[in-house]
Design brief:
By secondary structure, the chain is α+β, with helices and mostly antiparallel strands. The protein has a single domain, classed as predicted glycosyltransferase like domains (Thrombin, subunit H, Beta Barrel). A six-stranded antiparallel β-barrel has the order 1-2-3-6-5-4. A hairpin with a 2-residue loop joins strand 2 and strand 3. The longest helix has 29 residues. The N and C termini lie far apart (47 Å). The relative contact order is 0.21. The mean pLDDT is 85.
């Protein structure tokens, strides 16, 4: 049995991303998504301790601020490795439409990082061939980890729900 390409819902958006030129679409992605920053369970650990409530509150707030600093540092490090900034205009589980901040070649292999949420940072990475479509570029995800694709699908679903809610309130 031959399986066709799976189709995903897409949504118009305005999120930021970054890209770098890659040598091969099949080589491993340089970017590895880590959900550990900002995903700790410090409040639960402190709740079990015998530390005074004021100190618990102070430590929780300090932990939150340190996570923000780590996230900002992570973004800066990503910007150094992924010099092409991209303005993503449409997204789905199978690809993106985007506008790069500098010229790129037709069929250029790009590794992209999509910033789905900024605080706490939620990112996804993929590789594909950049193809010009009028004034905009398109990139099909030819190499994407399952976790990253699931994050993108969740993002699209969430954005579609927000659009439906906004339309109901008009």
């Amino acid at each position: 049995m031959i399986q066709g390409k799976q189709h995903y819902s897409k949504v118009k958006t305005r999120i930021e991303g970054m890209a770098r030129i890659a040598e091969s679409v099949h080589s491993p992605l340089l970017f590895r998504n880590s959900e550990s920053i900002g995903q700790d369970n410090l409040p639960e650990k402190l709740e079990e301790s015998k530390i005074p409530d004021g100190l618990k509150l102070f430590l929780t707030e300090m932990d939150r601020k340190l996570n923000i600093l780590l996230q900002l540092h992570s973004i800066k490090k990503l910007e150094d490795s992924y010099p092409v900034k991209i303005d993503i205009r449409e997204i789905s589980g199978e690809g993106i439409d985007f506008i790069p901040d500098r010229p790129i070649a037709e069929n250029q292999i790009l590794e992209v990082i999509l910033i789905l949420e900024q605080m706490p940072i939620k990112t996804a990475g993929a590789k594909g061939f950049a193809q010009k479509k009028g004034d905009i570029w398109h990139l099909d995800f030819n190499n994407i980890r399952e976790n990253d694709q699931e994050l993108i699908i969740q993002f699209v679903f969430s954005e579609q729900r927000e659009l439906i809610r906004a339309q109901k309130n008009i």
